[in-house]
Amino acid sequence: xxxxxxxxNYLLTVILIGISFVWIFLxxxxxxxxxxxxxxxxxxxxxxxxxxxxxxxxARNEEEFIGKCLDSLVDQDYTNYEIIVIDDSSDDATSQIxxxxxxxxxxxxxxxxQEKPDGWMxxxxxCMEGHKNATGDLLxxxxxxxxxxxxxxxLAVSHLLSLxxxxxxxxxRLLTMDFWTRITxxxxxxxxxxxxSAIRVNDPxxxxxxxxxxxxxxxxxxxxxxxxxxxxxxxxxxxxxLGKKVKESGHKMRIVRGDHLIEAVWARDKSTLWNALKxxxxxxxxxxKKIAIGSFFAVLFLLFIxxxxxxxxxxxxxxxxxxxxxxxxxxxxxxxxxxxxIEVKELLQLKLVYALFAPxxxxxxxxxxLSGLLQAKSSTVTWRGRSYSMKDHVQNSIxx
Length: 400
What we know:
The protein has two domains: 2-33 and 273-379, no CATH class; 53-162 and 213-251, Spore Coat Polysaccharide Biosynthesis Protein SpsA, Chain A (Alpha-Beta Complex), CATH 3.90.550. The protein has helices spanning 2-36, 66-74, 94-104, 122-131, 152-162, 179-192, 198-202, 220-225, 238-248, 270-287, 289-303, 306-313, 320-347, 358-376; strands spanning 53-59, 81-87, 108-112, 138-142, 146-148, 167-171, 173-176, 215-219, 253-257, 262-267, 380-383, 386-389. By secondary structure, the protein is α/β, with parallel strands linked by helices. Helix 3 links the parallel strand 2 (81-87) and strand 3. A seven-stranded mixed sheet has the order 3-2-1-4-8-6-9, with helices on both faces. The protein has a three-stranded mixed sheet with strand order 5-10-7.
């Protein structure tokens, strides 16, 4: 029995050493991302025209946020733009709020989305409805729970045209509304700033590509060339799928940091947090069951497993195998904490205390992904009060 326990402990030690090395790579990648990701307002400006920008803003039950978003958009210092606000079948006060803002600003064009056809995700349909009314050469897509600095449209246009880009997306500062989101988002963001780093997106030799739905600007002709939102109509993560199509088709795109200029809500409460976690896993499962299951176990071991093993290893520290296991699990746990601290302080701008809850954040992420796997098996997805049948719909938004 003792021999069996020792073998188990040494096997776990090997796994934990592997986890520690992975975290060394992740932390190095995070630091590189922080250091080398370009900023929205730092670029070599060149002379360019003043093309019209159509801001496309879909909104479904956004009474809590849309007023602040519109306040930030009607006050832009860019002169040649319009704001197309799409009410996507809201059953709260969203429509009334839009009507009030239409009276205040001639820049706002209200649109009532028609009934969503079968096979479309709601937001994708709303964006297409908005595009039908767009007259600009440039399209700027944003979300109703996003707030923009006064010069952000000017910067985005100038950045896009000066660098002769086809599309540009900005990473916002992700706002957190509740405790559970504040301890969970640092763990999710680790992968955003490593595997899905902006550096990889900006490298034309890498396949990694996506947009932030809260802010991306794209040339009208490029948008049409890649099939618009109609080409990703069944995608759950439509901004990821659209960005991927732009890069795959050979267009020039870039992701920049805009966290000092743009703020966006990632999850509003425990319920939306849970649904957001499931929403990340479901496309992977529908794309490849093996990849999704493998990703789940990778997240389980990288974000959570070292902590219960650390607790287990303290049971018999007088034993050599337990002492070795304790050391390995302590190092792996410290690595996770270092990653969480970097995310909390450097990128999410949260209080350091939330990094201390990394084990609980990792557990929530793991359980959310597991829930996503289980829901994906039913081929039915629920998002923003709507249920979607995903049968026969292959998702192409995320590549792992």
